[in-house]
Structures are given as C-alpha cells and as structure tokens.
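CORE FACILITY INTAKE
Project code: CF-77B
Contact: R.S. (postdoc)
Sample description: multi-component assembly, four entities in total
Requested service: structural model of the whole complex
Turnaround: standard
Below are the sequence entries exactly as provided by the requester. Do not edit them.
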Amino acid sequence: MRPAMMTPEQTGPDTRHGMILYMENVSVSFDGFKALNDLNLYIKEGELRCLIGANGAGKTTLMDVITGKTRPDTGTVSYGQQFNLLQHNEEQISRLGIGRKFQKPTVFEALSVKDNLYLSLKMDKGIWTSLWHNLSGEQKDDIDRILHTIGLTEHRDRPASVLSHGQKQWLEIGMLLAAKPKLLLVDEPVAGMTVSEAERTAELLTSLAGEHSVVVVEHDMGFVRSIARTVTVLHQGSVLAEGTMDAIQSDPEVKKVYLGEEGNA
Amino acid sequence: MVKPFLALFFVLSFLGMAFNVGAEEQSFEELVAELPDTNFKTLPALLDKFAEQDDPRTAILLTNLLGGDVYYHPRSQQVITMTKVQGERQFIDVLTSEVIAEPSGVRLRKVRVNNSVRSHIRQLQAQQNISDSNPDVRLKAVKNLLSDVDQISPQLLANRLQKEQDSDIHALLSAIAALHELDSGDESKQLDAINTLRGNLQPDVRIALMQLQQRDALPETVRDALNSTLAGIETQRKWYGWAENIFFGVSMGSVLLLAAIGLAITFGVMGVINMAHGEMIMLGAYTTYVIQQAFPGLIEYSLLMAVPAAFLVSGFVGIVIERSVIQFLKGRPLETLLATFGISLILQQLVRTVFSPLNRQVAAPEWMSGSLQINPVFSVTYNRLYIILFSLTVFFALMIFLKKSSLGLHVRAVAQNRDMARALSVKSNWVDAATFGLGSGIAGVAGVVLSQLTNVGPNLGQSYIIDSFLVVVFGGVASLWGTLVSAMTLGIVNKFLEPVTGPVLATIIVLVGLVFFIQKRPMGLFPQKGRAE
Amino acid sequence: MLAKLMRLSSVQRVVSILAIVGIYVILANTLFPEGSFFHVSSYSVNLLGKYLCYALLALALDLVWGYCGILSLGHGAFFALGGYAMGMYLMRQIGDRGVYGNPELPDFMVFLNWDSLPWFWQGSDSFVWMIAMVVLAPGLLAYVFGAMAFRSRVSGVYLSIMTQAMTYALMLAFFRNEMGFGGNNGMTDFKDILGFSLQSDTTRLVLFGLTVVILAAAYYLCDRIVTCKAGKIITAIRDSESRVRFVGYNSASYKVFLFTFSAVLAGIAGALYVPQVGIINPGEFSPINSIEIVIWVAIGGRGTLYGAIIGAVVVSFAKTRLTGIMPEAWLFALGGLFVLVTLLLPKGLVGLFDKRFPAKKNTTAQENAA
Amino acid sequence: MTPISSFLRFAHLPQSRVEMTQNANNKTPEQLEGHHMKLKKLTLAAALIASSLASSVTFAKDDDTIKVGVLHSLTGTMAISETTLKDTVLMMVDEQNKKGGLLGKKIEAVVVDPASNWPLFAEKARELLVQEDVDVIFGGWTSVSRKSVLPVVEELNGMMFYPVQYEGEESSKNVFYTGAAPNQQAIPAVDYLMNDIGAERWVLLGTDYVYPRTTNKILEAYLKANGVEDKDIMIQYTPFGHSDWQNIVSDVKKFGSTGKKTAVVSTINGDANVPFYKELGNQGISAEDIPVVAFSVGEEELSGFDTSPLVGHLAAWNYFQSIYTDENDAFIAKWKAFIGDEDRVTNDPMEATYIGFNMWAKAVEQTGTTDVDTVSDALIGMATPNLTGGIAVMNPNHHLSKPVFIGEIQDDGQVEVVWETPGTVRGDAWSDYLETSKNLMSDWSAPMNCGSYDVVKGACTGAK
C-alpha cells in the first residue's frame, strides 16, 4: 500500500547524539488555557524517565503531542535527529517506534487476548499485508512469550472484554511489548493494580529500559521511587525540575508547588 | 328600382327600432332577468347597462359576480346569490335582497364569469370607485387604471388631481397624468412628464417609457432624459432584486430552521436518530387542520390556537414514544434509527387511515395572506414575513429556556455528560422524556407553520426530514447556534444559486458543497469543544 | 448430536443453504409441472432472485456497518450505480427494436434530439465494459468519497448524513434529463442479455442461479475478510479507532478499502437486480431506499453476515406478502415489526436463531483447519 | 401422505449434491453425519420458504368470478392521487355486480399496493397476472409506473387500462390509454390562451420528468410554429415536491411585466402545486394579469387548499365535476354515496377510469369472454357515453376520442368551463409536432397491428 513508509520504520531514529526525543519550546493551548507552556524535554536513548506533576500539569497533553494526537501551537518535536514528529500522524509515529499505553486501559474489547497482541506485533501494517497475513512460527512464539510475560497465557482465547482492570493494564503493556518500540510512553501503568502486580510491573519496566527508552507518567510516588532514575516534574505546562528522585524531593520549588500539595502521596 | 329603396327602408327602420329599444332604459329587474341567458361574450355588455343605472343593488351584484357567487334556479330562473357566512351557506334573492331557504332538489346553475368578464367588472368598479370616499378603495381603483391609462379622461383626471388629498393616490394620479403627457408629442411636456416619472418603479411606467424609447423620431433632449430615467429605474430594480433574493433566502432559511430545530434537540442533544421527526411536524400540521375544523368561525385566530395545541400534541406523542420505545434503547443510538423509522411508518399510515390519504385544506387567515408592498418592484409576502419572525422567536425562546429554566439546565447537563449528571442526581429518565417531548413539540409547531406553505398530507414529514438532518449536521450536532447559522446559510446560498442554475442544480450544488465542507470541518460549523476526543 | 451440529461454521452453513435453495428452486421449477405442489413458479423464482440481490446488498452494508461501524445511509447509491451500468448495457442491446427504431441511440435520447451517444455511453454495448463499469462506477465513487471522508476523519452521524447527502444529490442528478440516463423514467423495456431473451424462463433461471452463486461467493469472501487479520483490525477500528491508530495502523486506508469493497458488492447486487426486475430509475437513489437497507441489516442482526441475508429476505418477503394481503394496513405491520424487533431482539432475528443453533465460532473453525 | 413427508423424501436430492461438495472439504464422517441432520432441517426450511412463496399458485382459479386487478399506490407519495382511483374501480365493480356481474359471473377486485415504488409496480403486475390470474388491470398514475409495468403486461399478454393524462410517445398492444394525450389537453389550452386571451409571452413551468418535458417540447414546437419568438418563451424545471417557489414566482412576475400579455403553462406535478399556488396567491399574481393554465391540477388537488386567491387561473382537462349533465350528476351522487363523504370531489382520471371500465365491461359482454386478444379487438371502435354529454370512442391506437375543456378555478375549488372544443378530439399516440415522432402512427387493428408505424419508411419500427 505505502512502500514509502517502510524506510523510516526500518532505519529507526538517528540517536548518534544519545538522545531519542527532543521537545523544544512546545506550547499547546485549549481555549486560552495553556496546557503546555514553552516546554523543553529531552529523553536519552535507553533511559527510564518518570514524569510527575499535579492534575492539569500537562502530562497527558505532552504524550498526546508526542504521539501526534494533539498538534502544538508552537515548538518542535523530533524523534532521533531526523524525524520531525509534527509532520507525522498517529499511525506513522507509532510505526516509527513510539508506543503508548493509555491512562485508561484501552484494549480491543471484542478481540481475543491473543488477537490483541497479534495486531500489535511489529510488522508491515498496510491493508494488503493484513488481508493475506498468517502468523509465522516466529510470531506465534513471540505472542506466546509475551502472553507468558504478562501472565495471561490461560486467557489467550478469551475476549479482552472479560478481563479484569489489572489484566487489561497488563494486556496493554503486552501490546506495547509486541510492537517492539524504541520509545515507550506509559501513562499510569499501575492504576488499579494490587501491590504485587505493581511490583511486577515495576520490574518489567525497569528491565525494558536500556534496550528501549521508557517514559512513565505516574501518581504513585512509591512506584516512581521504585523504578525511577531520572524524574521530571511538570508544573503548569512546563518543566519545573529534573533530576534524581532524591534531588527532586529536596528541591524547594518542587516541595512548594507539588509535594506540598500532594506531600502525603 | 323600388327594391333597393325598400330594402334600405327596412334596414333603416330596423336599425331605428333596435336603437330605440337599446336607448330605452331597462329596469334593474329586467336586466337581472337576462342574466341566466348570458355568456362570456354578452355579459360585459349587459353589465355596462347595469352600470349606467343608479340602482344601489348593482354594486352588490357586481361584487358577487366577481366572487362567482351568483346563481340561478334552472327552472324558475330566479337569480340568487350564494355566499358562505361563517362556514354556513346563505342564499339571497338578488331582486329582493332577502335571505331565502336553500332551493331543494336541484343543483343551482351558476352565472359564469371568466377572466375577461372579471377584469371588465373591475374596470367598471374602478371608474365608479375613483371618486369613492374611502381612500383605500380609491387607491385600488387608481392602481387598476394605471395599466390602461386611456380608461380615464383627462378632464376627470384633472378634476381628481385637484381634489385628491391623499399623497399616495395623488402621486399615482400624477403618474397617470404624466403617462398621458408622454404621448403628447410636445417636447417640453414630454420632458416634464419624464422628470415626473423619474424614479417611479411602477412596472407600467417602465413599460410606457420603454415603448417611448422604441420610437424613432424623438428629440435629443427627450431621448437623453428618457435614457437616464430608465437607467435609474433599472439600477433600482437590480438593487431591489438583491434585496428580494436575500429575503427569499432568509425566508427559506427560517423554514429550514423551524423544521430542524426540533431535531437539533432530539438528535443533536439526545443523540436519537429520530426518523419520526418529520411525522412530528406532520402531526402539528394536522393539529392546525383539526383546530380549524373545530372552530370554523375563528380562522383568523386558528394559528394562534394551533401553536400551543400542536406543541402539546406532538410533544405528548414524543413523550409517549420516548417512554414506550426510546428509553429502552439507551446506549444504542443507532438502533433508535430503526425503531423511529418504524414509528414513522406507523404514524404516516395512521394519519392516512384517520384523515384519508388526500391533502387536507388548511385555510390561511387574512393577516397571513397577500404581501407587504414596499415599493412596486419589491414586496414581501406576509406569510413569509411572519414565518421569519416566528421562527426567530421560537429559536430565541428556546435558547432562553435552555439557559434559564431548570429543565434546560438539566437537559444541557445530560447532553454533556450523562453519567456525571446522573451522579449529580439529575433524574436523567425524566429529563430524557421531557427533552424528547420538547423537541417533538417544537417540530409540531413547525408543522403549524408549514401548513401555511405546503401540502397537509401524510407525506408532509418525509419532505423535510432529510433537509432537517442536513441542517443540524452542517451546523454541528448539539449546537443550536450552529443550526441557526446553518439553516440561514443554506437558505441564502440556495436562493442565490437558484436564478443562475435553476432549482434542481442549485440543490445538487449545495449538497455536494456540504459533503466537501464536512471534509474540512468534520464536526460541522460549530463543533462541540473539548480537550479529549 | 447437538455438539456435532455445532461443528458447522457459519460460512459453511450459509453456503450450504444457498446451494440447497438454489438447486431446489431450479429443479422444482423445471422438473415439476405447473400446479404440482412442488412446483416453484417462475414468478417465485423471479421474486426470490430479487430478494437475493437485496441480500447481497444487505451483506455489503453489514460488512461496513456491522464490522466497521460505518453507518452508511447511502449504500443505495452504489446499488443504483451498478444497476445503471447494467441498464445502459441492456438499453444498448435493444438496438433498433426501440419505438423509434434507432439502431444506435436509446429511445429517450432520440426523444431528446441527441444525435450521437454522449461520451459516457461509449462502449456501453459491450458486456465486458458493463462488467467493468459495474465494478468501477460504485467502486470509484466509494473510493473517492471514502478517501476524502475517512482521511479527514469524518465519522459517526456526520459520516452517515454525508452519505445520505451523497445519494440524495445523485438522485436529483439522475432525475435530470440532461444527465443522459433517462431522467425520472430511467431505463426499462429491456429485451435481452448476451443474446438471450430476458423474457424467457431459462434466462431467468440462469440469472437466478447466478445470483445464488455470486451471493455465496460474496458471502465466502466477506467471511474471509472479517476473519483474517484485516478483519480483526476492522473490528478493532469499530470499537476504538484511535487506539488502532496508536498501534500503527492507518485506519483510514482500512476503512477506504472496506467501504470500496462493500460498494462494489452493492454495485454487483444492483447489476443482478436490474435484469430480474426490468427497470432501473433514480428512485433507487432515494435516501429512503438506503435506510431500508439499514433496516434489513438491523432486523436480521448486525455484525453477523448471515443476519444481513436473513433480514433482507424476511423484510422483503414480508413486504411482498403484506402489500398483497393487507394493502391498506401493511405499513402498520411493517412499522410494528421494526419497533418490536428493536425492542425485543437487540441482536436482530439471529439473536433468536443463535440461541437455538449456535454456530461454532469462525475463528476457531479456521484455526482447526490451519 | 402428507405434503411434509413428501418434502422430506424429495429433500434427498439436493442434499446428496451438497454431501459431495462437503466431502471434498475433507470432513470427517462424524462431521458429515452432523451435516446430514442439519441439512435435512435446512432443506425443509428452505423448501417451506420457497413453497410459501409459490403458495398462491395452488389456488385453483375460481370459475365463477372474473378478476379485476387494481394496481394503484395506496401508500407513499402517490397515494394522495391514486387511492381515489382504487376506490373508483371498486365502486364500478360494485355497481357492475349489482347489475348482475359480467357473463353471469361476479366480478372480484384484487387490490394490491405497489407503494409508489416503481420496481414494485412491475412485481405487483406480475403477481396480479400470474398469481391472481386477473383478466384486466386498472392502474398506474405516473409515467414511470406505466413504463415499469409495460414489459410485464406485454410479456404475459395482460390487459391494462391507464387512466391518467400522459406524454404520449407510446403505444402498446396491451395497454389502453383512457387519459388525455398531449393533443387532447396541452395544444387546445395553448390555442385558447393564444386566441381568446391574447397571450404573447409564455412561461412553461414543469416538474423535471418526462411528462412535462415532452409536453413542453411539443408546446415549444407548436408555439414557434405559431410565430412566438425564443425570447418570449421561458422554460423552468423544478425537482419533485419542490416547495419553495419564491424566486420562480417572482421571476414569472418580472417576465410578465413587459407589457405583453403573458401566460403560464404549468405541468407541475401533484405535490408541488399547493406551495406553488400559495406563493402565486401571496405574491398577488392574479389570473387577469398572468393566467396560469395547469394540466395536472384538478378538483382533487384543489380540494387540498384555499383557492380564493386563485380564482380565474385555468385548468385544461377532458372532464370537470362542474359540468352539468345527467350522467355526471348521477356519477357524482353515486361517488359521494359510495365514499360516504358529501365533500369528496370527482376528477378527470376518475372519468377516465369510468370510461375504461365501462368499455371493458361492454367488450366482455359483447364477446362473451375475457380473453385478452378477443376483448382487445372488440375494444377498438367501442363507444360508450362519457360523463360530459358526449361519446367516448376507443381508437385503433388505443387512445380515446375526448372533448377538451378549459376551465377557470373558482373559490370553492371547482372549475368552471370557459371554453370547449366543438366536438371530440382523437388522442394521438405520436405527436405531430415532434421531429422524432411526426412520421409515426399507431394502429392495433388488422392488418396493420403496429404501435409505431413509420409512414415514410412504410415499416413498423420497434420490436413488434
């Protein structure tokens, strides 16, 4: 269908400078409300980054901008050195290797767990391929492995709609894994999970870093502490502070506007 | 040699007799007795004889003839007028002017008049009425004379010009005088006349000027004056042509608005694909019919009564539909299409069964008939004018209602976020029923208006449903302002295209334009705002 | 026993039934004498053929609506375009047997004083051209419309109403005599197809058989589409289009493909319909006709391919019988049926059927075969 | 043996075929057994459906009745006009039965509803002829409904009476046209306007379909032949059900304000007339200034709205309710009694139905059979009284000879005759004023037996 799209997907982002994502001077406003305000953010290759911030600080909007759902009013967003993400739409961005897990788990309810993963596999996503495609042995193995990883092996043929909230979260993470993205954007991965589930998630995310770059938005400070190496604090649409968890927690500015408000978290 | 003389004698004496008979004044009674035997060719002459008389019954007879109300009994030849007084037939003997009983057992024969007879009667009336004491009657009479200015003698005209106090009538009389002068052949008189007629938009004046323009032998000065006067008239006509188009567009827009506004509520706010919307309109129109049947004497007020009645009838039916069907289809908006389509079939057939498949006659009250003459080339029909005002009134009343009333608040809350509204203990069931009733009721009100414009029949609704959906979608679902702007835009665009392309192509162009427009703005003119989705 | 019955996948079931009905009808029409209890009259063959064309049309709509959530209120337009392509061909086959005896021009053009065929009629006397147009005309329209609308992300009711506007505009356009498609009267009085008289029972039987075969083939194709990977994506688009995009699929291209494919099916249905019914006119473009298609699918059961077929046949059959039995009250019955089905059978008629004869899931059936 | 068991036996035949195909699909014997049972049921169901479709065939034709098919839309857009005609046929049947029926048999009317849907007209015509085995059909209103039915009645050699004025350019062996052809309505009306009213400028308004198109084409040719210039003719077409007439009426007003007497010839179709006339009335176009003559507006249409602003506008038909004859008085009285409504009106297509039915009944009486060919032959030259004091004659071209009346609309919705042809006018299937058809003639009597005979080529064009 669109062979031209094959090239960037195959080449991947140019990360010779060690950076996979550049966001510079990005502003977004809705009806006068500045959701992002002159924001600058850089994600290193293989890094695990946590984004924290109060409601309305711009976390979800930031993800929307990266994944092409929202167009910023000003600013540049580039993936590696060569891809200007603002020129691509959602599906192209996804095929470039940026995966996203939503705040509210969104899986394909009518499809089986296995098919959810099948659709997410990294492969040519054009219509003609899809029409004639059969799973190869390798792909079947991939799916089985991911099913195992996310602990849904015995649910493989059940429709996703019958899964529990936590299981859906896992499935969505599984879908991310299947896509083998370079950059993962994970929005509140442990909401609705039990403590042990959350621990496993933390483990998984940590293990992903290195090979992938991971950006996690989370409210659960315990969880953030357990995985984070670098934390970025967003406030009113801009970066307030950036650093290790400890450095952040001792930052007076942060204390004032963020921890001060949700200090008990 | 004798024979020709003899023949001449006979001819002459016969003519003399005929002349004598003709000259002999016939009585009103005798003339009336001749009425049954007339035809279109002989009637005007007979009427002239009536006019020569001073009988007061003549004026009444002429009026009744004009209305086609004069009959005669096929056997007794008695001439009778039959008029409807408050829906009841009334029979009056023309000679005695007394009310009589309905002649039984026969179909009364009509004293038939046709267009030429009618226009003859009108001229007879005009000549009489030009001196009438009532200025309205005089105005009508003078206007009638304008189309054929030779009917009035210069003496009478001069006389009337002197006496006439009313400025409008005076202006018309001067125009007639000027038209007389145009033919005079005297250069200065012609120039005066042309200057008098400068800016006069009467079509008859324009025709007379154009005819003058055709003539070869015209003094240069006259031709110049003539050309500039005509050019001025043409410019004005063009401007008023635009004004007229805008009026037509707005009027079409307001009909679309009325038809769509109910749907903007049931479909736009509630998300019900209400295929029975057209039938709600239809019910409103039939309500008007029923009201007029129930109160035949109150035709003038029937529309005022019909508006609340139609609102209640359609609103009630709407609530019944919501309670009995739609409430069970929550969260399955597409299936409401199926159910309401079924309901629309049932309602159509119901009306067909109850009221017959024929169109029903809904009378137009006097105040909705005719047109408001702004000037001779630009007039707006009263019914359209009232409809524009009415639909805007309904629109703003609805806006205010939704803003201020508690139901309105609840409606908006439910429309924006059903779950949240429920959480805030808005009784969304009740609100749904009331909303659907409101939308249906307004559709019913639209039906009252449409009964003044189009057929009141079982298919009435079908002809408006597609337009209504288009208007709502073009405006942006759930935006009442959008519906207003969209209806007016569609109306005006249509009316400006129509003279260029013809009505069929205009509609097609508008539709294709709409399809392209939606590609540019997938949520219509006024999309609902929001950050997510 | 029941367990064994359940092994049959729905596609096998439907194709079998179609084969049985087709063969039975053809045999019963030819083998048994008129008046025999088993005889199926040519009238019934004709009627059944018409229903099956409707079934194909319903199938096409169900594919986009039931599986991809695209509620098209304009599928009648594709049907009509296919029908017009066939009608043009049949018109040309009349040759000089028209009332004006013009060997080249159809009667209505002679009447309009046209002295030559307009460009878009060139080649219309060729059967191959006709087949090509049956596919291309609806296909191209759907492709262009779909490409515009789906890339601009027009969706939901906006899309539905736009499809309605499309068919409405086409209806008005085809009403125009200047368009060169016979205006309001459309095309009728066809004589023969590929040299076989349309009035002969054999031709009718062949057309009927062809309809059955094509419907079965279309069913098989549709089933393949909805069960293959693309079908899963399509279902996913129906449930959450934005998520599909975030997974990296260009959802618009899937929708365009499906919409176009469905339009082509509808066009083929129209082409089969015209010779069996004997007339094509702009009424087929009317928005109400398109709504009726939606009704068939909803009545039968949206999202199940055989539901669409059942819906089309049942509703059409009801209409045929009711307009004969109760000509003045049939709208009550039909309208009531629509309301009741919506209220009581949210899954349509197949909701009833499925409980009693649940078909084995297609996906598993396929996997067993693989 | 019950029919059902015989079904089951018979069901074997297609079933074995399917088994073979299934075998090719490598099914296990177990699965096949499943198929077996399943297929039996399916076959049964399929057979039942197919047979229920064909069920009416099993009705043996009742020899004691003569069946009359009534093919008029009772629902949909055309129901407004056509329901009346259905009732008219029923009334005629009723009356004939009171007189003892035909040939000693009762007449049975078979009413179906083609629902204003053109393909359905063809289907229902087939149903009437094949399933119900009717001897004659009365039906149709729109041109397209007739065109849709035409191939069916020709194929099955049925007989149909079509009672509405139409555009001509057609002649079928199996159809009798009892409404007016253009030369029986349009041409006389224009003659009247030209000669008696003195019209010099013409507006031809019509709905965009074949009847107005044809009529206007004929009129345009006719007007030009009479020396009217192009600039004095304005032609405008509107879509079906057009409801916003503001511009057009205003344009007519402007077109008519040039000093020359202007007349409007309207071939606007049913539904659009009410809004058109309302706009006409409101914009104050009086019949004395610009008369409008209509060919599809009769008493029935006029009963749907208040006609007082329209007094004097014209209609041209072959019948008006207001015509005083004993036949008409009796017909009106019978109609009102039959329908049970004192205010119901009669109209021209009703008269056409009346004439058609009477002619057919007379032909059946005369020939003693309902055989289509025999009755057809007998119908040619058949004469029965019309309702306006004359005699209607069926010509060899299957069109009637009819008087033409021009009437003016009154404020009570009736139309008063202001002009009429001295005698009857013979209906022309092919217009003499059209290039394409002026050489054609139709004669269904022996020896010609041709619907479109080209007198120049000396040959029968078309299929038959």
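Facility notes:
- The CA atoms of residues 498 and 505 of chain B lie 8 Å apart.
- Chain B has 21 helices and seven strands.
Invoice: internal transfer
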